[in-house]
Amino acid sequence: MDRIKDCAEISVRRGTAFALLAVGTLMIAFSFDVALSLKVGAATMIIMAAILAYRAMAAASTDYRRTETWLLLGKTHPLPESRRQKVIGSTLRDIYQRYARYSAGGAVSLWLASLVIPLIR
What is the DSSP secondary structure assignment for residue 73, as one 8-state letter? Predict the structure, then answer.
């Protein structure tokens, strides 16, 4: 079970890291206006959170053999075939939900910072 959790964590973390790279790149593109850059970052983080939440909802019904987690497991695991779908699907759902909460929290932080920046100037 720990191996499944580790592989699922790596899979979701890798995808989320690439999305954060895109958010950061977009924010740098708008760095001429810090408040605007933070608002753009907040908006894209909300989109990212929505996508992660959708993936969490769909994780239970997604065929486990078509997931990156299954590939990272080497397409083998001693877990009985009848339980693999439920275990891998629920593990992915939990991890997607956690990262969706992190993304939403980051979006709120960026949005609040975008409100504070004009007050400082």
Answer: T
